[in-house]
Amino acid sequence: MPRTPLRRASQSSLFAVSASDPAPSGLSFMDAHISEFVDETELLQANVEGMKRLSESLSTFNESFASWLYVMNMNALTTDWPQAPTDASFALAKRRAEHETIAAMEAIQQAKAAAAAAREAEITKTMEQTEMDITYTGLTTTNASVPSNKSGVKKKPGKPKLTAKEKKERSIEIEKVISCLPLEFRGSDPNLRRNMEGVIEGLLNAPAQTVKLTDLISPPDLSQARVNKCLIALVNRKVVQKNSSTGTVLYHWQGI
């Protein structure tokens, strides 16, 4: 194991040093060794002072760090940091859950309403297309089988004469039916309301209150498209029953 080399004065006694270093007299041989000793003593003093400064620095740091820890401890003891939820937190969570539930229910209702509207629009479109096809076929067959008169217009039977009481009852019944129909038939479109009244009158005046679509057409007011639209609204409200079991589409009056 290597060792730190010692100075010459530390390797033997002073007598051996004085014998190996001839000197003129006395202790003059110790001058060089004492100067080395003085240098080493000064170096030792400098190292001890450095250790003292290091100790003072550590003491200052320890005091500051201990003060900081003390302040943090006092702050933790004097400051309130609630970790558990309070009653207000539970009330807020309950209100938030209620709002979310209401919003979800409204979204479901809107989706159902949109689906129902789309379904109703699709059914109406299909019924209109079917009515147009059947009407076109019926008109073609009728025109081919029934001879036309001189003016080219098919004569329809006149309206039966009603008493004042019957007219009043008829008006009340028509108003009751129209009040159950969509807004456009209740006065939003006056022409459409008038057309609906004409269609209902035609149904009530028909024999056995059963008609075909062509029986209600009366240009220019009651065109085929308007009669078809009015009949679809009446069928949807179940005021009129549609029957095609005989091969011909017939409309039977049911009433409210």
TrEMBL record:
GO terms for cellular component: DASH complex; mitotic spindle polar microtubule; mitotic spindle pole body. InterPro entries: DASH_Dam1. Residues 143-165 are annotated as: Disordered. Its main location: nucleus. Pfam families: DASH_Dam1. GO terms for biological process: mitotic sister chromatid biorientation. Keywords: Centromere, Chromosome, Chromosome partition, Cytoplasm, Cytoskeleton, Kinetochore, Microtubule, Nucleus. It is found in: Chromosome, Centromere, Kinetochore; Cytoplasm, Cytoskeleton, Spindle; Nucleus. Belongs to the DASH complex DAM1 family. This is DASH complex subunit DAM1. It comes from Mycena maculata.
